[in-house]
TrEMBL record:
NCBIfam families: PRK13936.1. One of its GO terms (biological process) is carbohydrate metabolic process. This is Phosphoheptose isomerase. It comes from Methylomonas paludis. It is found in: Cytoplasm. HAMAP family: GmhA.
Amino acid sequence: MSLQDRIINQFSDSIQTKQDAMASLCELIEFASQKIVEALVNDKKVLTCGNGGSAGDAQHFSSEMLNRFERERPALPAIALSTDTSTITSIANDYHFDQIFAKQLRALGQTGDILLVYTTSGNSANIIQAIKVAHDRDMTVIALSGKDGGALAEVLNEADIEIRVPSNSTARIQEVHLLISHCLCDLIDQQLFGG
Ligand SMILES: O=C(CO)[C@@H](O)[C@H](O)[C@H](O)[C@H](O)COP(=O)(O)O
Ligand SMILES: [Zn+2]
């Protein structure tokens, strides 16, 4: 296969995964946006986390909340738990990597806040630990996942929302997670500030 054929395959797979996700996930994305809006109008905030490329997704979403998405509007409260290297390295060094998000959440998470997690496998232990702390704090969890949902699917409760991308490819799932993040930003702005 030529290099250009490989590119065409990547684009085709990405387009197909997005079409599959569009067909199955619209209602859940709408519901997740309503949960976030409900938290924001009650002076709560969104905390985000993920590993690797998903750490970037978490940071990407929080920056669009704190700064702006596509229109001028007031800043919205969000914190990415994957950005503070001093805190992350000290928690991992002194305790365990599994605790890097959970310990921050114990300090920053409050009842009614939203924990927005990004994980393609659903099996990242530090995400599972963060979800357990979120439940202790009566926070709602919104999980952007993929594959078979992994261990995450078993720790979520009925008040949480799992948006599982129908794919087994980490890259394809991440590409759809980014699109879902942008949908959430658009829907949040629309519900809070109108059209
Ligand atoms: O971006 C990529 C692969 O596309 C990687 O950095 C990937 O995010 C990392 O392997 C993560 O550790 C995977 O974590 P998860 O999605 O299984 O929770
Ligand atoms: Zn990636």
